[in-house]
């Protein structure tokens, strides 16, 4: 054990266990991993409490919110507003451009790479489009179901 003495406090470095620092000999030699584990538990408990409070104060509340932002917040927290559609559109554009640019890597292979280039150039964007459309079908089903539910309740 190495003793570091300063004017205000004394630090002990236990060299047998690595980088644990015992401040003023108080037995507080918690490693970074242990303190991170404790923070994860605290964060999880706070998230549960915050989620329950948010649900009962905003989503389940019987009173209609006053103000434009409060109404938007209630709709957002109750998932009446969906962000996935514009995000998926942007991901579709990114994916399509990536596949087209990626197809040019096959040109470096020469010979059989030319065929792979044309296949990736033509079929790649088609595959990305099909994946996008299949994902959008779920959102369209959700939207239609919500519209039907709104008409039935009115």
Give the SSE layout:
Elements: E1 2-5, E2 10-13, E3 21-23, H1 32-59, H2 68-77, H3 84-103, H4 111-153
Antiparallel strand pairs: 1-2, 2-3
Helix pairs in contact: 1-2, 3-4
Overall description:
- The protein has 154 residues and is mostly helical.
- It folds into three domains: 1-30, no CATH class; 32-79; 82-154, no CATH class.
- It contains four helices and three strands.
- It has helices at residues 32-59, 68-77, 84-103, 111-153; strands at 2-5, 10-13, 21-23.
- Strands 1-2-3 form a three-stranded antiparallel sheet, with no helix packed on it.
- β2 (10-13) and β3 (21-23) form a beta hairpin.
- α3 packs antiparallel against α4 (111-153).
- 1% of the residues are buried.
Q: What distance separates the N and C termini?
A: 76 Å
In N-to-C order, the SSE pattern is EEEHHHH
**What's the total helix number?**
4
Largest sheet: 3 strands, antiparallel
Instruction: Give the overall shape, derived from the CA principal axes.
Output: flat
In short:
The protein has helices spanning 32-59, 68-77, 84-103, 111-153; strands spanning 2-5, 10-13, 21-23. The chain is mainly alpha-helical and 154 residues long. It has a 3-stranded antiparallel β-sheet with strand order 1-2-3, with no helix packed on it.
Name its key features:
3-stranded antiparallel beta sheet; 3 domains; mainly alpha; 154 residues
């Amino acid at each position: 054990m190495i003793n570091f003495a300063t004017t205000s406090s004394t630090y002990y470095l236990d060299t047998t266990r690595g980088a644990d620092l015992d401040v003023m000999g108080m037995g507080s030699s918690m490693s970074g991993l242990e303190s991170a584990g404790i923070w994860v538990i605290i964060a999880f408990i706070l998230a549960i409490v915050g989620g329950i409070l948010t649900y009962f104060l905003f989503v389940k509340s019987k009173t209609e919110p006053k103000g434009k932002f409060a109404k938007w917040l209630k709709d957002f927290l109750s998932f009446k507003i969906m962000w996935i559609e514009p995000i998926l559109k942007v991901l579709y554009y990114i994916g399509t451009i990536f596949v087209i640019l990626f197809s040019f890597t096959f040109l470096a292979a020469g010979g059989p790479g030319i065929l792979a280039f044309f296949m990736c150039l033509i079929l790649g964007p088609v595959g990305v489009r099909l994946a996008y459309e299949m994902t959008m079908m779920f959102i369209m089903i959700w939207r239609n179901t919500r519209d039907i539910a709104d008409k039935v309740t009115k």
